[in-house]
Amino acid sequence: MPRPRLRTYLATAAGILAVGVAVGSWTVPALAARVMDVFVTNSAADPVPVAGVVKAEQAGTWNVGITGTPNVNVVGTVTARRSAATVWTLTKTFALNDDVNSGDLAVGGFTELAVDLNIQDQRLVGPSCCGPCPTSTKSLVVSRKGADGRLYQIDRVDGLTQFTNTSHSLGVGASVNVSFGATIQVDVLQHSPAGLFCGAPWSISVIGK
Q1: pTM for this one?
Q2: Which of 59, 94, 106, 180 is least surrounded by CB atoms within 10 angstroms?
Q3: Mean pLDDT across the chain, nearest whole number?
């Protein structure tokens, strides 16, 4: 009698094991599928703590903060253009032997200055009124104002006569290769023969860029 009872036990155990294996093989993939389909969304006030490296895919617009002073590599050619601005201009309709000074001109925001002077027909004024004055000349002087308040000449053109146009570009790398600093002064000086009073319409322009 013990042997039939042992066989019964073994058959029952084998049946239970078979059922367990079958149920387990069906349950594990189902649970795995459910885990893969689960998404957790937290509010900004309750963020999910993250440790290590996390792969993320952008959705919508991201705001990126930069800490410190990063180095930026620019590929290709970058063209920067500055708009020109008038620094000083003056027109004299009939000036008589007068020297003109611009006063302090602020030019610290520019890298290049264009200084242009135009002189028209010069005429005598006085006893020999209205005759030509060909020997009268003008000088154009540009000075930089130093940190000590003194003026330092950085450009000068002499011997400018009637019907003359002169144009100079000042700046590092310009035709007049100088640094003009933050403040300049411009002088237009008249040189007439002794005893003669010469006058001429003229104009000057200083443009920065």
Answers
A1: 0.58
A2: 59
A3: 78
